[in-house]
Design goal:
Blueprint: E1 9-12, H1 22-49, H2 56-83, E2 89-91, H3 92-125, H4 130-133, H5 136-159, E3 171-172, H6 179-182, H7 191-224, H8 229-258, H9 264-290, H10 293-302
Parallel strand pairs: 1-3
Antiparallel strand pairs: 1-2
Helix pairs in contact: 1-2, 1-9, 1-10, 2-3, 2-9, 3-5, 3-7, 3-8, 5-7, 7-8, 8-9
């Protein structure tokens, strides 16, 4: 790789340039990381060890928990390393590796949310055909497609970074290596990279968002046709948590990958990136478990000492 670049390593700007706040940020991010990993691990184990939760909805929720663990583990350990005084440098190969994995996991998470919306659409709009349309082979195929397509997309966009030429400027204005931030540094043309990034954004972001919204438009129309107020409440309760997560992720990720890559937008981007790499993985277990009696019962069975 050194044949393609004069830069052997990059310097991450970090979350804050104030040395006095390093200890506070270290404490906060350590707590955040622990909460994200612990919460999602509990959800994954509860679903895996409880046969009553071996249904399509919880199968996708277990995949979401895995993606949340992987996403936050790709970003926060390196950030914590810089906060404890071990330096904010990252090697060229390490930076590309981080970009590959964060792009993979974020893309898979967005597509998985679309698959979860489709699952809710079938459950509410076609309940009589649910077992056939959402059989185990279908669910495995959907999940495998989500992981595979996102991995291919991430491989293409990361591979296109390798030929770029960096002319010595190696400070990344972010607390981790992310594609929009890194594309501000090359002195060689990045036209192809920008085109492929936009194409990926349109497919993974916009198209999946539209599919999700179409699914929910049918879901809402179907719920409104339910005559009993209790039936409407139950139907909405099965979708409200997922709709909250969808809104949160799409709004933050679209902002990051569509915003201009310079000026104060990069500073704002740090906060927004923190939301979907750290805050989201913390909130997901709370959103799905606190509003779901089945998950709470499963947690009490598997972990009676903490529930």
């Amino acid at each position: 790789m050194n044949n393609y670049t004069d830069v052997a390593e990059f310097v991450l700007q970090g979350f804050s340039g104030d040395p006095g706040s390093q200890a506070a940020f270290l404490a906060f991010f350590s707590i955040f990381y622990t909460m994200a990993v612990t919460g999602n691990t509990l959800i994954f184990m509860a679903i895996s060890l409880n046969p009553s939760l071996h249904t399509p909805m919880y199968f996708f929720l277990a995949n979401l928990a895995l993606l949340d663990i992987a996403c936050t583990s790709t970003v926060l350990p390196k950030l914590l390393e810089g906060l404890v005084g071990k330096g904010s440098h990252i090697s060229y190969k390490g930076c590309l590796t981080q970009i590959f994995f964060i792009s993979w996991f974020l893309g898979a998470e967005l597509m998985l949310l679309t698959a979860m919306a489709y699952d809710r659409y079938v459950a509410i709009c076609h309940p009589l055909h649910y077992s056939m349309l959402m059989s185990r082979p279908v669910c495995v195929l959907l999940a495998g497609t989500v992981w595979s397509i996102s991995a291919i997309n991430s491989s293409v966009n990361t591979g296109l970074l390798v030929p770029l030429h960096f002319c010595g400027h190696n400070q990344i204005r972010h607390f981790f290596c992310e594609l929009p931030a890194l594309l501000q540094l090359p002195c060689s043309p990045t036209t192809l990279n920008n085109i492929m990034t936009v194409m990926a954004d349109v497919f993974i972001g916009v198209v999946n968002f539209l599919f999700t919204m179409v699914s929910y438009s049918f879901i809402i129309a179907s719920i409104l046709r339910i005559r009993s107020a209790e039936g409407k409440r139950r139907a909405f309760s099965t979708c409200s948590a997922h709709l909250v997560v969808v809104t949160f992720y799409y709004s933050t990720i679209i902002y990051t990958y569509v915003q201009p890559g310079s000026g104060s937008s990069m500073e704002n981007g740090k906060v927004v990136s923190l939301l979907y790499t750290t805050v989201g993985p913390i909130l997901n277990p709370l959103i799905y478990s606190l509003r779901n009696k089945d998950v709470k019962v499963a947690l009490r069975k598997v972990f009676p000492c903490i529930c």
